[in-house]
Amino acid sequence: MTGEPQVRTVLGDIDPAELGVTNSHDHLFFASKLLPGQELDDPTAAIEELLHFKAAGGAALVQWTPYGLTRRTRELAWISREIGVHVVAATGLHRAEHYAPAILHRVVDDLVKVFVADLTEGTQPADLPDEPRTGPRAGLIKVAGAFHVIDPHARLTMTAAAVAHEETGATIAVHLELGTAALETVHLLCDQLGVSPDRVILGHLNRNPDARLQREIAETGVFLGFDGPSRANHATDWRLFDGLEALVEAGHGGQILLGGDTTTAAARMVTGGGPGAPYLLTTLAPRLTKLLGGDVVTAMLVANPARAFATSWTE
Q1: What is the reported pTM?
Q2: Cα 248 from chain centroid?
Q3: In angstroms, rounded to a whole number, what is the distance separating the alpha carbons of residues 89 and 288?
Q4: What phi, psi does 60 have (nearest 5°)?
Q5: What angle is formed at CA 8 by the lines to CA 269 and CA 259, rounded to 5 degrees?
Q6: Where N6-carboxylysine occurs along the chain (predicted)?
Q7: How does pLDDT run across 263-314, given as a tens digit for each residue?
């Protein structure tokens, strides 16, 4: 380990105390074959979205776009420098459905090499495997579960993530498909593969608003990601506040992370008329403050991300 924990941003490592108000799960760039015509691939739109987020009080954004889905980390670094907002990029691999077959024909050892190199040497486009790694370094590993199960692809990528975590110390962030298979993910990553629960973030817990299950997940000690709470009239949205209140009352407020998870052009505020990244601070945070108190919400936006994304990096 290198010593004191640091957050690895696209512009370099920083003290966790410098991170500030953080959108713990969002996307400035993202493109998947599952979302044709909805690519987030416009740097101008990304700049405008991040400017609005900054104007609302945002200081840091964590992009969960993994390897092979158009991370555009060089643009992330330029945008971060120009706007003055910290940005953390991801390595890792999403669900198999998002990729062309060529990217998926890998074994654990190959994935570990990709993940570790992204974290320690610099990121690289998936379509340029022979080019030198000259991009900014990733600061977390993003993988994904399947609907209600850990399928073979998820087991492969999570195993690779656990090995890469052991080699680097990087936090593992998990996309839970519709919020499911959370306990199964903890069992695999923590119980079987030895990852400490406080190095795991489970995303999309708001998509499965089962209060008893959320409490059981929280008791494992992982970080709890509530991201994308912006779909008006969805049952998951109006249950979000009760769920967060119950977790805070049970003593789990220090594990909660909040994010926007903007994955389509239509969901962007500046181009699609959606809530976009600023919604977290302009709408959700004020409502949560009235319910839970300012100190609690500030912890979710500042103190909790500082602990979740910081690590004593191994080079």
Answers
A1: 0.96
A2: 21
A3: 27
A4: -155, 145
A5: 30
A6: 142
A7: 989 888 888 878 899 999 999 999 999 999 999 999 999 999 999 999 999 8
